[in-house]
């Protein structure tokens, strides 16, 4: 009976089961207002967008040209699907790691982002795509809350795929202060920020060179909330990025 039940479970495939992978190299430029973060994303960069799902369990590596969630790796379970909606339990980061070499003290103030469990809802309506996320996030003392909503639209023009996306991300003050707060011992003015919304817009276009190779270009701009932009670690409220990418689709 146990063997029969196990075989029946194994034979039940999820409609989203499958695999996808594209790997590309691109030349890009990025400007950001993070003063003491040595990370420089201008120049050549590797873009990898991959996903594998079996029996509802999935692993994702979303380091492609569309950054709609700041995570290196995503694990989860797709527990429900309808005609237009998919529901996932997802374990992912919701902010990138930050390394700040602080002035005077020269302390490496490292802010590590940990993966947290959340609910992700995906909606697909022909060329219109929705993504909704409610999840935990690294916070101070660890009460981080992250929510986001993304809307994407695709257009086909001859062989070109033209797309646009807009997203709103919310992080509570525990997340803001975990990554951008300053304590008195760090050599900068003490700072605590408030919760806020982050807005990201992206436009791009891709063109198939042949059956396997694709050319893509995009421009993306993010407006930071005041709780982030007013931190002594930040000088400005905008992150801008553009790149030209050639990628291979497996």
TrEMBL record:
InterPro entries: MipA. The keyword Lyase does not apply. It is found in: Cell outer membrane. This is Outer membrane protein. GO terms for cellular component: cell outer membrane. Transmembrane segments: none annotated. Keywords: Cell outer membrane, Membrane, Signal. Belongs to the MipA/OmpV family. Pfam families: MipA.
